[in-house]
Amino acid sequence: MIDHLTLLTIVAMAMVTYLTRVLGFIALRNRVMSPMVHEVLQAAPGCVLIAVIAPTFTSGHPADLIALALTLFAATRLPILPVVLIAVLATATLRWLSAS
Amino acid sequence: MTEPDLTLPTTGYRTPHNELIRGARAALPVLLGFIPFALVLGAQASHKGLGVTEVAMMTGLNFGGGSEFAAIELWTSPPLLLVIVAMTLLVNSRHLLMGATLAPHLSHLPLRKALPSLFFMCDESWAMGLADAQQRGRFSLAYFLGVSLCLWLIWVSFTALGAVIGPALGDLRSYGFDMAFAAVFLVLLRGMWRGVHAAVPWLFSLVTAGLFHLLIPGGWYVLAGTCAGLVSAYLWART
Fold first, then answer.
1. In terms of DSSP H, where are the helices of B75-140?
2. pTM above 0.90?
3. Which of A10, B41, B108, B203 is such that its CA lies 20 to 30 A from the CA of B10?
């Protein structure tokens, strides 16, 4: 038996999230964008992605920062799978070394 | 004598089915980052008293990892509905912008196709869909859905699994899986790289988000960073 308020909270979360997904699209659908808006929106994907991972850059743990630097270096020249593997292994190893 | 059947797909022709599979395959490396986080989220949720059904409902209907971690962090019994919904809105406000950037690619579709597809838009599927469109000159909805559905399925099933086996897991993040997200995002950013000039707004976004994360508690940093980046892009475009 699911508690009513829990159910209501989950449904409300889902509705708000879905609205964020469709409203931006609906607002700009069938609209001719000025070159300025177009240029600003071109920068949007990168700005969103880097803001989401910003906390990784400010963690302040030397082990994490070195691992991040290695990951960044790998990301400039390797395909996605090796980059992910290097990131996880480097982070785990460096944390283990710094803890011992 | 029969004419050769010209409707047969020639080699290399992209059917929606092929595109769906291509998207799902492209999503596989991303799963390495998804699975540990899904297990951690499920485990934390079960620790807060949520059952498997509730966890699967939340992650299946909401499908936004950041907002779900925030909600579980804030979860009390009974839950504070308004606080959790406001936090969800804040963390997911970036979707508004993401949806807007998809508008030119999806506006030829009828709404009955576009609106359900947008339900599955997450950071990764959105960025991969756009990167693919840039490479091939055309946005492929089936590829986007292939990525999205694969990620959705794994997210829901592994958060549910996390709720079941959670207490036995310990903190998976300490093993280094948290860096998988940064890795995926950095590779996606490399794909968007258009020279130093175009990347200046990213730097503003990164610095602002980093400062907000250090100084201001809560989920404000993504919104603040993105806004700073866009303002600088606007000023940059005017000069």
1. 81-92, 94-106, 111-119, 123-136
2. no
3. B108
